[in-house]
Amino acid sequence: MRTNLKTAASPKPASLRTAAAAHAGGELAFVGVFLSDADTDLPSPLLVAPDLPDLRYDDAGGMNLLASLLGGDAMSFVLTDAPGLSMAAAKKPGGALTSPNSALALGANVAASRFGVSGKGVKIGILSDSFNRLGGYGHDFADGDLPGGVQDLEEGAAGGSDEGRAMAELMHQVAPGASFMFHTATRSEADFAAGILALKAAGCTVIVDDVSYLDEPFFQDGGVVQKAVEQVVAQGVSYFTAASNEGTNFYQAAWSPLIGRLPGLPGKFRLENFGTAAAPSAFINLSAPANATFDIDLQWDQPFASISAGGGAANSLAMALYTAGGKLIGTAGALQVGGNAEQLLQFTNHTGATGLKLAVFANGLASPGLLKFIAYGNVSIDNPNAGIGSGTVTGHEQVAGVNTVGAIDYAATPAFGGNGAVESFSSAGSGVTLFDAAGNRLANPVNDNKVSFVAPDGSITSVLAPFYGTSAAAPNAAAVAALMLQADPYLTPGQVSDILARSATPVQALPGAGGAGLINAANAVQMALTLHAHA
To answer: Global pTM?
Structure first.
C-alpha cells in the first residue's frame, strides 16, 4: 500500500518561492524570503515574509538583493543568492522560527484581538508521517514554536520527515492556546484508522490528517479509514483532511472500447478509445521529466472486495505504458475479477525522453461502465478531455461531514494584497460515490461536494521552510476550528463546517478546487459567538 503525503514538493519556480535554513549556534534560523522580478509580474524587489521589522534590503543589480539586519540583538545573519532570488536569514536569541504568515492570512490575529480566543482548552489530534523522528521538538519548545506536553501516541517509522511537527507549528501560530496529540498514519490503513479512534478516545475534539492511501476507493464508501472518520465525526469530532495536490491531473470517461492489438502483448484486446469515433486512439499521451517517478491509479465503477461483504469487482481493467515510439515499458495487469476495482502502476522515467503513452484495456470477460485514473507525482496527462469529471479527491477526503481543505498561497490572500488564486496543484473535487459499503450500486450517484474550503500554505516552519501543499493548509484550517470551539464548546461538527463555509472569503479557483472560499477566522469566531448567544 503506497501512501500519499500531501506536501507539495517545489510547487513554485525558484524565482517565485524558495527558502533555506541558516544555522546559528546549531539552531535553525529564521528565513526571510524575497522575490526578484525575474519570471514574475510582481514588483521588484518584494519582501514576501516581513516577519522581522528590522530587516532592510535594496535592489543590487535587479537579481541579487543586498540585505542587512539592523540592531544588536541578532545572533547571525546569512545572505544566500541563487538565480532570480535572494534569501536572508536571522535569528534572535530564543526567537521562534515559524512564520506567522498563514495565521495572518486567516485573520487569526484579528480574531484573537477582537474576541480573546487562542484555542485554549481545545485538544487537536494530528495524523501524519512522524512527529519527532528528527529530534527537533525540544528546540521547538525552547524557541516557542510549540507548547510543552505534546503527546505522541504512536511515532512514525524511521525515515519520517516530521511533517506532523510542522503541522503543529502552523497551528500553534493560529491557536497558541490549543494542545496537541500525534499518531502516525503511514504504517498501514488499519493503523491509520486506529489512530483516528485513539485520538478521539484521548479527548481530541479536532483531528487533522495529511495522508491518503493510493488504494482508497474513488467511487465507494466503507473503507477502514472512511469508517473511522465517520465514527469520530458522529461522536462530535470536527475532522479535517488535506485535499491532496493533484489538481486536475486525472482522466475520467465512460468505457468506450476499440478492438485492437498492443505492441509487446499477445492477442487482441478491448481497448479504451481515448480519441473520437471519427479519429479513434488506443493511447493517451503523458509527459514526465527524465528520472521522474510517478504513479497511475486506475479505478472503475465496481466495488472493492476489501470493503464489500458481498464480493468485489465483476470485471477487470489493466494498463500498459509505452514510450512515444511504441516500446512497452510497464504494465499493471493483475486480474481483479472478485477483487478490488483498481490497478496501480508505478514507473521511473529512465527512457531518455519526456513523452510517454498509456493504454487501458479489459483483461476480464465483462466490461465496466466508467473508468478514472489519477496521475500522482511529476507527470501530466496530455489530452483535451483530461481534468473533466469528479476530480482528484479520493477515499476519506470524500466522506460526508469531513472538512476537505484545499490550498492557497498566503501571499495570494487579501491580507497580503494577493489576487485570491488557489494553488494550481490543489486537488479539485467534487468526488462522486456510486457504491455503499456493502458494494451495492446506489440508485442515484452521490455528489460528495468537495473541496470544502481553502486555507493558506507557504509559511516557514522549523521542519519545512517553506511548507507548501494541502498538508500545510489543512492544519491551518483545523486551528481555526479550535478558536471557534473555545468561543462555543457546544458547536457540533456540522455547525463548525457550516460556519467555516458561510464565513469564508471568495477565491479564484478551477471548478471544484476552491469550495466555499478562504477561511476567515475572525468572521468564523464571530458567527460561533452569535450562535452561542442565540442558543
So the answer is: 0.85
